[in-house]
From TrEMBL:
<dbReference type="InterPro" id="IPR000835">
    <property type="entry name" value="HTH_MarR-typ"/>
</dbReference>
<protein>
    <submittedName>
        <fullName>Transcriptional regulator, TrmB</fullName>
    </submittedName>
</protein>
<dbReference type="InterPro" id="IPR036388">
    <property type="entry name" value="WH-like_DNA-bd_sf"/>
</dbReference>
<feature type="domain" description="HTH marR-type">
    <location>
        <begin position="23"/>
        <end position="81"/>
    </location>
</feature>
<dbReference type="Pfam" id="PF12802">
    <property type="entry name" value="MarR_2"/>
</dbReference>
<keyword id="KW-0805">Transcription regulation</keyword>
<dbReference type="InterPro" id="IPR011991">
    <property type="entry name" value="ArsR-like_HTH"/>
</dbReference>
<dbReference type="GO" id="GO:0003677">
    <property type="term" value="F:DNA binding"/>
</dbReference>
<dbReference type="InterPro" id="IPR052362">
    <property type="entry name" value="HTH-GbsR_regulator"/>
</dbReference>
<keyword id="KW-0804">Transcription</keyword>
<dbReference type="InterPro" id="IPR036390">
    <property type="entry name" value="WH_DNA-bd_sf"/>
</dbReference>
<dbReference type="GO" id="GO:0003700">
    <property type="term" value="F:DNA-binding transcription factor activity"/>
</dbReference>
<keyword id="KW-0238">DNA-binding</keyword>
Amino acid sequence: MEFKIQFPDGRQVDFHKLVEFLYGITDSEMNILHLLLSTDEKLSVEDISERLKIAKTSISKPVNILLSKGLIMRDKTEGEGKRRPKYLYYTDKNAVYNKIVNDLEAIAKIFCEKYKSHVESVVAK
């Protein structure tokens, strides 16, 4: 589903592109975030790889970036026998929604304060 945000002059931006810009994430990171937001399951690297049709080796860095930005979470499961532990990735949809809304509101507040200060300094000259 495509979701666009329309600006007052009629230009539109895809919501995914806005989120990419807001958090400085790439298309591949956004694809993983979108996948995790689209499911109620916890997904392994193998699951993500299979669903997005990308190599498992190209998933580690994007998920770590998404984790560091607080956009996804992970659970550790014990590997079978002497295998390494396995991680399952997921999102808390409400937490991601609240994070995006709060971050956009904070940006709008800062913009308003800075713009008001700028206008006042220009008018004072």
